[in-house]
């Protein structure tokens, strides 16, 4: 009997994608301060994605230039679409849970956009806190503590700039600036936020005279790029192992 060589096929060791690392890190931070984590459908209705969030019929985000529409209609005869943000989970979660509501909703979102800083598919994390006595000061405190924990440094500042979003009033863009490192002193936008608009609170099935709260939305790719010093969003999706192995 002659010995026959046996070829052993090895299985390469896998790793977690850098954006998924950020996703898990964000969940861990917010769970530690009492937030639930919610998940929702990526195919949304017109009402949940736009109308319930105070975006009127003629809102520019509804145009074909921004939104991926798909075949089929919802129960109101409106076209179905790939969600353009994770904000629909504000209304979905609030209509299924009683206040106080503390939740984040990370997930994939879709818009017709593609360049060095935009992708047709990207990830967001939505945050929502609704209760009887939640103020803008709570938003500032929660987000400041979040970015300090996420970037593992106390040496940063947070700035709120007045802005406009249909689902919040007042609204703000949130910027951060590091006190050291290669990005020292540069203000960098990381989130849109604000006090939940009374019309949105009403669409949650709640009385805006009794309940108040804040919401924010942050791009997970943006946070990941800042944490690891990445300057081109497209690197995340090219599947180049030379790039991905650096994070494992």
What distinguishing features does this structure have?
single chain, 248 residues, 7-stranded mixed sheet, BirA Bifunctional Protein, domain 2
Description:
- The protein is of the alpha+beta class and 248 residues long.
- It has a single domain, classed as BirA Bifunctional Protein, domain 2.
- The protein is built from 7 helices and 10 strands.
- The chain has helices spanning 18-31, 46-49, 88-94, 136-151, 198-203, 220-228, 241-244; strands at residues 36-37, 43-44, 69-73, 79-82, 101-110, 121-131, 156-165, 168-178, 188-196, 212-219.
- The strands form 2 sheets. Strands 1-5-6-10-9-8-7 form a 7-stranded mixed β-sheet, with helices on both faces. Strands 2-4-3 form a 3-stranded antiparallel β-sheet.
- The longest helix has 16 residues, at 136-151.
- The termini are far apart.
- The mean pLDDT is 90.
């Amino acid at each position: 009997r002659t010995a026959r060589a046996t070829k052993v096929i090895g299985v390469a060791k896998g790793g977690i994608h850098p954006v998924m690392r950020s996703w898990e890190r964000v969940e861990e931070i917010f769970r530690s301060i009492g937030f639930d984590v919610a998940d929702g459908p990526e195919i949304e209705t017109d009402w949940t994605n736009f109308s319930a969030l105070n975006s009127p019929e003629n809102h520019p985000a509804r145009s074909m230039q921004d939104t991926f529409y798909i075949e089929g209609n919802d129960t109101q005869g409106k076209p179905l679409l790939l969600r353009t943000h994770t904000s629909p989970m504000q209304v979905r979660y609030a209509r299924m849970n009683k206040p106080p509501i503390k939740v984040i909703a990370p997930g994939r979102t879709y818009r017709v956009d593609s360049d060095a800083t935009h992708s047709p598919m990207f990830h967001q994390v939505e945050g929502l806190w609704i209760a009887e006595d939640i103020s803008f000061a709570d938003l500032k405190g929660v987000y400041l503590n979040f970015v300090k924990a996420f970037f593992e440094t106390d040496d940063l500042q947070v700035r709120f700039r007045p802005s406009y979003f249909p689902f919040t009033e007042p609204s703000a863009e949130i910027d951060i600036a590091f006190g050291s490192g290669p990005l020292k002193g540069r203000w960098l936008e990381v989130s849109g936020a604000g006090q939940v608009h009374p019309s949105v609170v009403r669409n949650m099935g709640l009385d805006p005279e009794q309940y108040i709260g804040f919401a924010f939305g942050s791009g997970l790719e943006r946070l990941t790029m800042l944490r690891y010093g990445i300057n081109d969003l497209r690197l995340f999706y090219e599947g180049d192992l030379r790039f991905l192995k650096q994070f494992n």
